[in-house]
Automatic annotation (TrEMBL), chain A:
InterPro entries named among the record's database cross-references: THO_Thoc5 (IPR019163)
Lineage, opening ranks: Eukaryota, Metazoa, Chordata, Craniata, Vertebrata
Disordered as annotated region, ranges: 1-34, 252-282
Gene transcribed to yield this protein: THOC5
Domain of life, source organism: Eukaryota
Compositionally skewed regions (Basic and acidic residues) per UniProt: 22-34
Acidic residues bias (residue ranges): 258-271
Entry's localization field: Nucleus
UniProt record similarity statement: Belongs to the THOC5 family.
GO cellular component: THO complex part of transcription export complex
The protein's name in its UniProt record: THO complex subunit 5
GO MF terms held by the record: mRNA binding
Protein's GO biological process: mRNA export from nucleus
Automatic annotation (TrEMBL), chain B:
GO cellular component terms listed in the entry, alphabetical order: THO complex; transcription export complex
PROSITE patterns: WD_REPEATS_1 (PS00678), WD_REPEATS_2 (PS50082), WD_REPEATS_REGION (PS50294)
Gene: THOC6
Phylogenetic placement of the source organism: Eukaryota, Metazoa, Chordata, Craniata, Vertebrata
InterPro entries: THOC6 (IPR042626), WD40/YVTN_repeat-like_dom_sf (IPR015943), WD40_repeat_CS (IPR019775), WD40_repeat_dom_sf (IPR036322), WD40_rpt (IPR001680)
Residue windows of the WD repeats: 164-205
Pfam assignment, any one: WD40
Keyword hit for Nucleotide-binding: no
Keyword terms, alphabetized: Repeat, WD repeat
Protein name as annotated: THO complex subunit 6
Length: 635, 296
């Protein structure tokens, strides 16, 4: 552009140059023209320099740019290299970490410990020399050994499997053989039945019993086993049987699935019935009670035959929820008994077995745990239900092997055979004595009610030939009435008059004298003697508190009872005591000293032979009868 | 008054028998040991029980202290009388008198030191010995009982020296009159006889039942108890309890007690008496009125 401008200027300049030829305007015009020429040359030079400079500047600029460009290129190349290297480094690091984290499968295997390895592995695997130093080789060797072992075990496993198969096949074969045997055995047994009956060896019957016995609950089972054993070994008069429904017993152990199906059906049925009638709370409680007192469907019956053909039938039940055994008793005699009025309680099923062992009255449950169960359903005591369920005597629990330590509830049923066995013999003997003594009393009461004291011929020696006082009355007395009598206070205070005893009143008369005797009959008769308390009404009322002789008479029958027991088993005790009372009354009345101030003869002349009428500081009458001399003396 | 009904304990045969025995037991005699710490009691079964008085009377006495320390069977028949010398306990019952050493008596299985039986006339029945009396001056023991005689036994030699006869029925009780050594005996025949020990003869007889003031025919004529204070004597039993003046043999005071008396003793100026059938021990003055009664 500057060249263009300079070119443009030049023409201008030339034009302007064309003008000066004219002339001389003057000298100034020539000078000016020379100056202008000079200046024009100068400006052309200047323009040239300017262009050169401009050119130089441009070149310099270009060079500079090129240099920068080059340097920049280099830097970029380095930068790229750097990036590449960094990238590689990162990559390598990743690889390294990967390698480091690499877990080879062999570390998951639990290898045997080093010592074991060196011990067990064969030398060609363990290569001790090499492996000791080199852990890599060691691990390899161990892996080898592991592999060896596994192969061997796999072999063994396969062998065992094949063995098992073989044996299973053999079992199958044998089972088939046995099942083919069963029907043949059955037929043989059927054929042998008539032979058994002919020979009186009821094995089949016993076998069936053992079958049903399998379904008995443990205590009843113990009782059954022990009773059968005792019956076979010691006592042929004892027979044991199982009664009840075996199906129901089996039903108790039905698996729950079946019962669930039944439940759904029964629920549906129940819903229908509940629409008609809602069970009240009382009925629900009642049902709960019935559930708690439920009996096991099977029961054991034991029959004891006594010498006189009377039989004691005992039925033993097991109360499942309460875990106790109860018994119901019945006595049947060979001939029909006519029960005298006073003997009502003697053989009643409720009281015939009461107090077989002292204090065992059977009205309370022996298992202390039952009290908590009773509280839940509102039962006060078992006494209300004993008539229906039977009595839970302690000896029954012992026969069933159930042992209830005092004050400790027992949660598990442990039926102990040794406990049952040790009690079996004593209890059976006691039961027999009990039945026989009760039957003897039964007969005696029948006679007593008619006013006759039945003294057997082998006890006649205890009494003189002539006895004038007579028994006129023999009645039962209630427990409360006995406690109310004024002359029985001593016995009541001594704790001998409990509610398990039976009470009677006898009246003996002679002339105007009446002797009342209140009798306490302990259930353990005749090993525990009856206790008499006397009250004599003759010339005033005399009891043991105001007349020492009445006390002596009581002592003669209460304390000296052993002489009156008679021949074993001593069932004559009561009648002998009553007869002795008659004799004592005779002696008392006849030896009463005559009152000289009163006129008239003695009411009872002395007929008894006595050595002395009074003896000792208490002036006792001679109450002791001496046989066979027949006189009376003092003790 | 209502008594709470006692709970009947489950009783076996042995417990029932023991309870019956205890109900019919009578304690007939007792004697205190010379040291005063023990009491021996004899009952109608022939057993002697030794009680520890110091334990039972101490402030820490429990129920067990009131039970006997030891009980043993002393005689076959009842033990009717007992008396203590300074070393021995003498017990008598059915016809025999036995001596036990106080020092040994607490050991188990104690055996008697000696036993003697006075010479009896009859052999059909062995008579009982109802009363024992120690005469310290002569060191002898007097026994009296069922055979109506008083036997004297020398304690050193054990021989029976005298037998005093006179009673027509058995003798209940004995008493010693210190001054002139005389023994009084009361018997079933209703007479109180005084015996002189030196001459061995009956000195005086008082037939109590014949005196109208004191006789009670409806009770009988037997004399159950005797006590003497040298000039005076108290006796009772069937007849009423009466105070007698011995020299003149006259009844001076009659004590108003209805029941027949079993025991009586003089104590300083008072007369203590106990009846068998009541629970009281009555104390009278000599003038005949009842001062007070001790009762159970």
């Amino acid at each position: 552009m500057s060249s263009e401008s300079s070119k443009k200027r030049k023409p201008k300049v030339i034009r302007s140059d064309g003008a000066p030829a004219e002339g001389k305007r003057n000298r100034s015009d020539t000078e000016q023209a020379i100056e202008i020429e000079e200046r024009r040359i100068q400006s052309c030079v200047h323009f040239m320099t300017l262009k050169k400079l401009n050119r130089l500047a441009h070149i310099r600029l270009k060079k500079g740019r090129d240099q920068t460009h080059e340097a920049k290129q280099k830097v970029d190349a380095y930068h790229l290299q750097l990036q590449n290297l960094l990238y590689e480094v990162m990559h390598l690091q990743k690889e390294i970490t990967k390698c480091l984290e690499f877990k080879s499968k062999h570390e998951e295997i639990d290898l045997v410990s080093l010592e074991e390895f060196y011990k067990e592995a064969p030398p060609d695997i363990s290569k001790a020399e090499v492996t000791m130093g080199d852990p890599h080789q060691q691990t390899l060797a161990r892996l080898d050994w592991e592999l060896e072992q596994r192969k061997r075990l796999a072999e063994k496993y396969r062998e065992c499997l094949s063995n098992k198969e073989k044996i299973l096949k053999e079992i199958e074969v044998k089972k088939e053989y046995l099942s083919s045997l069963q029907p043949r055995l059955n037929s043989i047994m059927q054929a042998s039945l008539p032979v058994q009956e002919y020979l009186f060896m009821p094995f089949d019957q016993a076998h069936k019993q053992y079958e049903t016995a399998r379904h008995l609950p443990p205590p009843l089972y113990v009782l059954f086993v022990q009773a059968t054993a005792y019956g076979q070994a010691c006592d042929k008069t004892l027979s044991v049987a199982i009664e009840g429904s075996v199906d129901e017993a089996k039903a108790l152990f039905k698996p729950p699935d079946d019962s669930q199906d039944d439940e759904s059906d029964s629920d549906a049925e129940e819903e229908q019935t509940t629409k008609r009638r809602r069970p009240t709370l009382g009925v629900q409680l009642d049902d709960k009670r019935k559930e708690m007192l439920k009996r096991h469907p099977l029961s054991v019956m034991v029959d004891l035959k006594c010498k006189d053909e009377s039989v004691l039938h005992l039925t033993f039940y097991y109360l499942m929820n309460l875990n106790i055994l109860t018994v119901k008793a019945k006595v049947t005699t060979a001939t029909e008994l006519i029960t005298p009025i006073s003997a009502g309680d003697l053989l009643s099923p409720d009281s015939v077995l009461s107090c077989l062992y002292p204090g065992d009255h059977g009205k309370k449950t022996p298992n202390p745990a039952n009290q908590y169960q009773f509280d839940k359903v509102g039962i006060l005591t078992l006494r209300d239900y004993v008539l229906d369920l039977g009595h839970p005597y302690l000896w029954v629990q012992k026969l069933g092997g159930l042992h209830f330590p005092k004050e400790q509830p027992q949660h598990t049923v442990i039926a102990d055979h040794s406990l049952s066995a040790s009690h079996m013999e004593t209890t059976m003997k006691l039961l027999k004595t009990r039945v026989q003594s009760r039957l003897a009393l039964h007969k005696q009461f029948a006679s007593l009610e008619h006013g006759i004291v039945p003294v057997t011929s082998d006890c006649q020696y205890l009494f003189p030939a002539k006895v004038v006082s007579r028994l006129v009355k023999w009645v039962t007395v209630a427990h409360e009435d006995y406690m109310e009598l004024h002359f029985t206070k001593d016995i009541v205070e001594a704790g001998l008059a409990g509610d398990t005893n039976l009470y009677y009143m006898a009246l003996i008369e002679r002339g105007t004298a009446k002797l009342q005797a209140a009798v306490v009959l302990n259930p353990g008769y005749s090993s525990i003697p009856p206790i008499f308390q006397l009250c004599l009404n003759w010339k005033g009322e005399k009891t043991n508190s105001n007349d020492d002789n009445i006390r002596a008479m009581e002592s003669e029958v209460n304390v000296c009872y052993k002489e009156l027991c008679g021949p074993r088993p001593g069932h004559q005790l009561l009648t002998n005591q009553l007869q002795r009372l008659c004799v004592l009354l005779d002696v008392y009345l006849e030896t009463e000293s005559h009152d000289d101030s009163v006129e008239g003869p003695k009411e009872f002349p002395q007929e008894k032979m006595c050595l002395r009428l009074f003896r000792g500081p208490s002036r006792m009458k001679p109450f002791k009868y001496n046989h066979p001399q027949g006189f009376f003396s003092h003790r | 008054m209502e008594r709470p009904a006692p709970v009947a304990v489950p009783l076996g045969q042995a417990e029932v028998f023991q309870a019956l025995q205890r109900l019919h037991m009578t304690v007939f005699s007792q004697s205190v040991s010379p040291c005063g710490k023990f009491l021996a009691a004899g009952n109608n079964y022939g057993q002697i029980a030794i009680f520890s008085l110091s334990a039972a009377l101490s402030s820490e006495a429990k129920e067990e202290s009131k039970k006997p320390v030891v009980t043993f069977q002393a005689h076959d028949g009842p033990v009717y009388s007992m008396v203590s010398t300074d070393r021995h306990l003498l017990s008598a019952g059915d016809g025999e008198v036995k001596a036990w050493l106080w020092a040994e008596i607490l050991k188990k299985g104690c055996k008697e030191m000696w036993r003697r039986q006075p010479p009896y006339r009859t052999s059909l029945e062995v008579p009982e010995i109802n009363a024992l009396l120690l005469v310290p001056k002569e060191n002898s023991l007097i026994l009296a009982g069922g055979d109506c005689q008083l036997h004297t036994m020398d304690l050193e030699t054990g021989t029976f020296t005298r037998a005093l006869r006179g009673h027509t029925d058995y003798i209940h009780c004995l008493a010693l009159r210190e001054r002139s050594p005389e023994v009084l005996s009361g018997g079933e025949d209703g007479a109180v006889r005084l015996w002189d020990l030196r001459t061995a003869k009956e000195a005086q007889t008082i037939e109590v039942y014949k005196h109208e003031e004191c006789s009670r025919p409806h009770n009988g004529r037997w004399i159950g108890c005797l006590a003497t204070d040298s000039d005076w004597m108290v006796c009772g039993g069937g007849p009423a309890l009466t105070l007698w003046h011995l020299r003149s043999s006259t009844p001076t005071t009659i004590f108003p007690i209805r029941a027949p008396q079993k025991h009586v003793t003089f104590y300083q100026d008072l007369v203590l008496t106990a009846a068998g059938n009541s629970c009281r021990v009555d104390v009278f003055t000599n003038l005949g009125y009842r001062a007070f009664s001790l009762s159970f």
